[in-house]
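The instructor's notes for this session suggest beginning with a concrete chain rather than abstract definitions. Hand out the sequence below and ask the class to guess, before any prediction is shown, which regions might be ordered.
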Amino acid sequence: MGQLSGAVCIFDLDGTLVDSAPDLTGALNRQLTRLGMATMDPAEVRPLVGEGARALLIHSFEAHGRPFPDGNEADALVEAYVADYAAHICDESYVFEGVKETLDALASESATLAVCTNKKEVLAEPLLRATNLWDRFEIVVAADTLAERKPSPLPLQHIMEKTGADRGTMIGDTFTDYKAAEAANMPALIASFGYGANDERLRNATWFDAYADLPTAILEKLAT
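After discussion, reveal the predicted structure:
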């Protein structure tokens, strides 16, 4: 038995395991262009990621000083964006350096590996498969897997229950991940290279700078 036997390491997807901002930005810009709005740079989009497709569109409209529509018009915009993004889900996205080696190291210490993302299932699975990460995880909980999503603690609690783990750690990059872990009474580690790096609400978070540092950081968190 390894040092992490009985523990589950729960990873966020976008901005934590995979830098998907280039493809998220591409799909967003195609929708903005269609609507006669200015395009955005990936650097502008990264801080808006983490709450799902609808929230990303709402935030992008806010950035343009435009109100986001409601009702059927809003649903149609979200559906068009999701369909476009799904068709280009891994054109330019890539796995962050050290992810696969670190997942192997955690598995070698008997940790259970899971994903908790605010991406819908129809997007999360294809991205994980395209990046050759899917088979490394015992369970993947997406935005629409349960009745609630992050920052609700329900997805993290569900993962704990399904894996039979007696302790867990949330590894993410945004305030949404941090709050979900806090609500689930679970420690969190936040990636300094992720999309929430400049979020003042994360000033009290525990950060990690590289995946090579993560196994030690997880052991330290679970020991406290």
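Then share the key points. The chain has nine helices and eight strands. The mean pLDDT is 95.
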